[in-house]
Design a protein that fits this description.
Layout lengths: L3 E6 L6 H7 L1 E6 L9 E10 L2 H7 L16 E9 L10 E4 L21 E5 L3 E3 L6 H5 L2 H14 L7 E4 L5 H13 L2 E6 L2 H9 L4 E4 L1 E2 L2 E2 L3 H7 L5 E6 L4 H6 L3 E9 L25 H6 L3 E4 L2 H7 L2 H15 L7 E6 L3 H9 L6 E5 L1
Parallel strand pairs: 8-9, 8-13, 9-10, 13-14, 14-15, 16-17
Antiparallel strand pairs: 1-2, 3-4, 3-6, 3-17, 4-5, 5-7, 11-12
Helix pairs in contact: 1-2, 1-12, 4-5, 4-11
Amino acid sequence: MEPGTRVLVDRYGENPMDAVEHHVRLEAQSAPTSLEPTDVLIRVRAAQVNWVDLLMMSGQYQHMPDPPYCPGMEFAGDVVATGSDASIEVGARVIADGFRTGPRSKGEHRKWGGFATYAIAPSNAVFPLPEDYSYAEGASFYGGFETAYHCLVHRGQLQAGETVLIHGASGTTGLAAVKLAKRIGATVIATGRSADKLEAVKTHGADHGIVTTDSNGVRRFRDEVKALTDGKGVDVVYDPVGGDISLESLRCVRFGARFLIVGWSATPNVAKGRGGRGAPNVNQLPTNLIMMKSLDVRGCPAVISVHRNPALRTERLEAIHRWANAGEIRPVVGRSFPLVEIKDAMRCKWRSEVVGTVVVTP
């Protein structure tokens, strides 16, 4: 097999962009020649540049692979070799399961990230690529739709006929949440910083779009939400953004609403950089509003929840696989870069420049 290339993070940065500028490098990669009996060798065809990949590079994510390591949690490609006991055939088009292989996994396979020409994975960490999916769509599938399913279904208990406010709707998990909420039968109010992006999100199913920022930062948008809900407010908030967006959202809900904490993309520096532990700039919510509106505020850690209760994942994988194979849900790939332009791809993701996912192609 021909030689390839891989990305290495040689140490944690003070923040993700510090890591991109100073601690990310490309190096030559030879095709691995030794496999454990249950391993498969994947020729990577596409890998998603995930928000979590960026946080990992500064040690600001709860899971910390030891540098130097190859990032790229989510990827798809072709099986080009197998161990003697592997349960999959050479030539299979597959998606790698970022829970069981790559930098977010545990054990020896965490060094095999998808920002590379080749990656080794245990055979139980690969799933067939849906027949009509591209490799880029496969690399963009799990992180978005698993997160959205866990938050909206397991934690949010979203029902047909309800209204959900989805923040960061043009991003990976936000757009997946829009698609999943519409599959459930809910009304979707999507938010974001760009009117043009929100128009694109509407083409993917959102019923309404609200721009949440202006030149002064997060603006008052509660009146628009109330107007769209006959003054009642929304039943569910899907919040992967955090910060001031969360605070304004508390004024957009009906009595007894469910407020889903999905992430904190607007405030990545809640945690120390360079792998320091603790949250010196932790986000805070006003307890008086939570009480007076009788809110259910629910944390939605999709990965940690599975580590504590693996049965949760069996159900959600079954559901999203069924819907994907039936053509009912599909990721949106916003932009693709060659792997040698990995730094540009990471900057593009950090700046939220596209609707959907950012991928690299080795």
